[in-house]
Amino acid sequence: MSEPQRRSSRGRAESGPLKELVEYIARSLTHDPLQVHVSEVVTGANVHLELMVGPEDRGRVIGQGGRIANAIRGLLRAAAAQDGKRVTFDIV
């Protein structure tokens, strides 16, 4: 079993395309793009992404009834499927 790899948007060492997609979308939606942080944990073919935004922007990223969050999840699933990966996405 391989060791999970943690990547944070603060380090900018090596970032995956799914993480970059979430960062781009979230920064486009928020009033304060500097408070957007994405962490990525990669375990084999599974990728777990966590999005952290400022409290005033959380509703903007989630959307009414979770529509924006679900749309982001759909985009991530499609992008991950092209690479043969599975992705989970949480807003914290």
Describe the 3D structure.
- The chain has 92 residues and is α+β, with helices and mostly antiparallel strands.
- It has one domain (5-91): K homology (KH) domain (GMP Synthetase, Chain A, domain 3), CATH 3.30.300.20.
- 37% of the residues lie in helices and 26% in strands.
- Total beta strands: 4
Low-confidence segments, given as residue ranges, are 9-13
Count of helical regions:
3
CATH homologous superfamily assignment: K homology (KH) domain
Keywords:
alpha+beta; GMP Synthetase, Chain A, domain 3; 4 strands
Q: What topology emerges from the helices and strands here?
A:
Blueprint: E1 5-8, H1 17-29, E2 37-43, E3 46-52, H2 58-62, H3 67-82, E4 86-91
Parallel strand pairs: 3-4
Antiparallel strand pairs: 1-2, 2-3
Helix pairs in contact: 1-3
What's a quick, concise take on this entry?
This protein is an alpha+beta fold. The protein is 37% helix and 26% strand. The chain has helices spanning 17-29, 58-62, 67-82, and strands spanning 5-8, 37-43, 46-52, 86-91.
